[in-house]
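Protocol step 4 of 6: record predicted structures for both targets in the notebook before any analysis. Target 1:
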Amino acid sequence: MDKNNIFGFNSSFYYFGLQHLVLNMYNYIKDGIDKNEKIYVCMAPEVYNELASYLSDIYGFSYVENFRIHKIISCYNKLKLNEIRAKLSKHIDEIVENGYSGVRFIIQADYMILSSSREYFMDFNKSILYIILGLKASFMSLYDFEDYLKHKYIIDDEVILESYRVHSHRLYNGNLQNCRGLSHSK
């Protein structure tokens, strides 16, 4: 796992199957907990429950919180970006005052797309870097690469290509790697 400060990163993880996702998110979340970060995850209930079954053996749930997608959608639809940023900044300040070093947000892309729309998710994802810039927060989007390779039902070419454009880092082989400047051809 990347041992450096990841605040300000808008990163991605491309997973192939539930166990691949759980194994990598377990390590990513454990790294955040070891750094005393609050972890907010927004995942399909069955994915969260599978992940939580492993995390509960090691940590209490004071570090990890599952938040509902509708909170994000409602806030993003009602407020301007600078208002969202100000609200998030205040929330992070409260978390830091409670003893955490910062926040990691993890969102399952296909879950958000199914709960809203592909266009909504892609617009939201483009805004993340501005929203978290300079805050003690990082953001990771999880992409179902199995769906992309086999069906393109939710995660299609447009979503994947846009993910390559908006994410500064990728979780690969247990480490966050800078992916700016990489060439991505179809």
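Target 2:
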Amino acid sequence: MKLSFLSCALVALVASADDDFVRGQDGRLRSIEQDATIRSDAVTNRQCQLKNTGYLSALKAGSYAKSTFHKCFHTTAQIYEFVDALVAQNPKLLSKFAISKTFKGQTIYGYKLTKGNSKSLYFQAVQHAREWVAGSSLLYSLSSILDDISAGKSTAADQFDIYFVPLVNLDGYDITWSSDRYRRTSANQVDLNRNWPTPYKNPEPPAVGDEIYPGTKPFSEPETSGINNWLQSKRNELAGFIDVHTYAGLILFPYGDTNSTIGNGYDAKFNTLGLGLKSVMGSGYAQQSSHQLYLAYGVFPDWAWRNFTKPALTIEIVGTDFVAAASTIPARGLEVYKGINQFAKEVVKFNGAMVAATVDEKNVVEAATVQVETATVREILD
């Protein structure tokens, strides 16, 4: 009788504990309060926007990073409106261009920052719709570089022209503002960061509806196909690539789709490049080869490296969730801004004379110790 009573009590306790948590789309258990925060994030940021109006009329050269625009996350229209205002104030430095189309037919825009250099760097963000802070960090970086130019400070733009594409997954991003805050895929239910060509086949191909569904074939999606066409047209000038994601706190370099090393000394060069970014971005970041976390097929940096033989990285911004508080925008943006400036310096060295490997390539890169919950590992690496 006592045993039966105790068993019932334990069952009730477990049931009560389960009732206090909700399992999200990423498989993580969160408290009811945490889940509510995620679901109300768009509303919270719209309220933030109402408290921080007038940023366009207040924009001033040299103070762009201090703009109240960076106090909140913003919709697609607001983002383009803000950067268009920067273009209007800096017509000799900044220009707007169309780079691709979305599944729904929207135009994906990029912005070119130029001081007349012969080589360029390409930075993109938000292949995954829910990663708002990836896009905001790229916008903060652009603002900061413009501020530095106004102040006569050294920037990445001294050595390279820079292309910024703050929103790749435009359709999906819009959906995160209207209904599904935790959406990862495009409007066509494709993970755009699995839609790039790879010489390897996933032994367990994800099905339609899976968050990492790669599409019917490489470049099946207008977003990636259009970006590919545009990048190919710039082949002779492109010197390096960064794809910004959240939230693992990692600087990732090829390969993600195989355990094999690159060889010819490149693994050591990538590790040195990653260490350079880590040195300025902070202790929250670690550098490693992508496959050291897990295998991912069809990711952008692998394709860019194989196609252009120029350094290509994923920056996984540090954090605790894909949904980040607006108050973290400046801090995360500053980290990416520092990483971008250091990347420009490292690219010059990386693209210099080839240095033959002097040690076993497999021992060059030590795996970073990254605490990642098993339930979230597939979603975190982008």
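Step 5 preliminary note on target 2. The chain has one domain: 28-351. Strands lie at 21-23, 29-31, 94-101, 107-113, 120-125, 161-165, 238-253, 286-289, 312-318.
Proceed to step 6 after PI sign-off.
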